[in-house]
Amino acid sequence: MNCCVFGLQWGDEGKGKIVDILSGSSDIVVRYNGGANAGHTVVIGENSFALHLLPSGAVRPGTICVISNAVVIDPDVLLEEILSLAEKNISLKERLFISENAHLVLDYHKREDRLREASLGSNKIGTTIRGIGPCCADKVGRSFALRVGDLRDLNKLRAKLKSIVDYKNKLFSALFGAEPVSAGPIYEKCKAYAGKLLPFIIDTTEFLHKSIAEEKSILFEGAQGTLLDIDHGTFPYVTSSNSSSLGMPSGCGIPAKMVDKFLGVAKAYTTRVGAGPFPTEQDNEVGQYIRVEGGEYGTTTGRARRCGWFDAVAVKYSATIGSVNSIALMHLDTLAGLKELKICYEYKMDDRNSSFFPANIDRLSQAECIYETLPGWGEQISEVRDFNDLPANARNYVCRIEEHIGKPVTMIGVGPKRSQTIMR
Ligand code: GDP
Ligand code: IMO
Ligand code: MG
Questions:
Q1: Residue 24 to residue 20: CA distance in whole angstroms
Q2: Which CATH number fits domain 3-91+204-423: 3.40.50.300, 3.90.170.10, 3.40.50.2300, 3.40.1440.10?
Q3: 229 CB neighbour count, 10 Å cutoff
Q4: Alpha-carbon distance 187 to 252, whole Å?
Q5: Given pLDDT bands bounded at 50, 70 and 90, which one contains residue 380?
Q6: Which atom of ligand 2 is nearest to the CA of 7?
Q7: Measured between alpha carbons, how far is residue 350 from residues 11, 328, 343 in Å?
Q8: pLDDT of residue 298
Q9: What pTM does this model have?
Q10: Is the CB of 16 under 6 A from ligand 2?
Q11: Among the atoms of ligand 2, which is closest to the Cα of residue 113?
């Protein structure tokens, strides 16, 4: 069975936890988009892992891990991640495969990200400053890009790097009045990356097709969420990759029809980090309650996440374009203690009600939320493992979400640990 797990909101839905659970019955886990902007948390017993580039299956010894073409790889972050798992006696030797065609995020990308955001002032996107946008721009621009496979021929890489750094320095100086960077130290770092990463580099498309022919079960792991998708999200307040499930086929070279199941992950409320419209945002005591109870601070940047009510219009859109079969609804435990809960099921725009999410932010920012109000529950539910043992109001809340989205909720998160999950 092949399954694609991806986010239905603006990221941080709990994908890492779901991928960790499902990787127990998968042979291979594949990260298909994004880069070190992602932060996927896996909690096993007393150990908490924050994974940025490795697929969340990495924490299970024996699971094969693949980083596919569309992932942009910062080797500093990747090597640190490999090292930190090794310190916990988790080895990736002979079970990590990195696409030769994935692009490299280098120091000048992170610098460009920082300079560009700083220059935008109040118009900034609020990126993670992980160099994602500049690296993806270089990839699409083609002439000034380096890929993982370029680490195989260091002489060629040195010449290419020189032309890239010359070009970047002109940009840095002209646009930002910034000091030039020097190609020498970046080349030395690339040499070190090559020494460490070459054993992992392969043609991952060939490997994955062979694995499918051998009937291996593959789990595809998306980063970010559908509403941050470069083509289908709330542009320009998005990331630079196709972070919906639509990015999976192009990101790995695997047709969507080879995937048996698309599992969308959503929180039982909504969060967002960085700038951009957020119709159900509660910049008040409700938002603060959710932030504190849910520990809503970024895994990658530590920023406080913006919090708000569940937006069924947005999630239904993500489920529709993402071909979702079922939903994992996370953080239901966080809502315990709120007297009333609201679900937004329609937007009022241009004097009419619509339940189709407008990804265009000029229209989205006009949207007025139409809410259904439901009674909350007071009991803590972190120890509940059977849906029928949940308080009636919690069951009702989940069922109303299912009705609004028109898809079944098959997994429910009631805490960060692997075991704190209700399977339906
Ligand atoms: P991801 O980027 O989608 O993998 O999500 P993050 O790891 O960035 O953020 C999710 C956070 O919620 C992490 O700290 C998880 O440990 C935690 N988490 C996941 N599922 C649940 C849940 O059902 N309840 C609670 N309380 N925490 C959860
Ligand atoms: P995971 O995989 C939440 C957001 C940033 C910013 C926008 C663009 O953990 O769910 P970028 O650095 O990508 O250019 O930033 O996208 N963003 C995320 N928000 N979770 C993520 O990843 C994110 N990755 C990027 O906050 O608003
Ligand atoms: Mg995250």
A1: 7
A2: 3.90.170.10
A3: 28
A4: 28
A5: very high
A6: 10
A7: 29, 33, 21
A8: 86
A9: 0.98
A10: no
A11: 14
Instruction: Tell me which residue has its CA closest to atom 23 in ligand 2.
Output: 224
Cβ–ligand 2 distance for 287 under 6 Å, the answer no
Q: Which two tokens stand for residue 25?
A: 């019955």
Catalytic residue ranges: 12, 40
Q: Do domains 3-91+204-423 and 103-199 have the same CATH topology?
A: no
- Mutation pick for ligand 2 pocket among 41, 124, 127 (CB with most ligand atoms within 8 Å): 127
Nearest to 190 by CA among 105, 112, 113: 105
Query: Does 222 sit in the ligand 1 pocket, CB within 6 Å?
Result: no
Q: What is the pLDDT of residues 37-80, one digit of tens each?
A: 999 999 998 899 999 999 999 999 999 999 999 999 999 999 99
Q: Is the CB of 55 under 6 A from ligand 1?
A: no
pLDDT of residue 149: 98
Q: Residue 300 pLDDT more than 90?
A: no
Query: Tokens 């999950």 — which residue?
Result: 421
> Does ligand 2 come within 6 angstroms of the Cβ of 126?
yes
Q: Which residues contact 100 (CB under 8 A, 6 or more apart)?
A: 147, 148, 149, 152, 201, 202, 203, 204
Residue with token string 């098959």: 410
Q: Is 103-199 assigned to CATH 1.20.1300.10? A: no
Domain ranges of the chain: 3-91+204-423, 103-199
Q: How far does residue 128's CA lie from ligand 2's centre (Å)?
A: 6
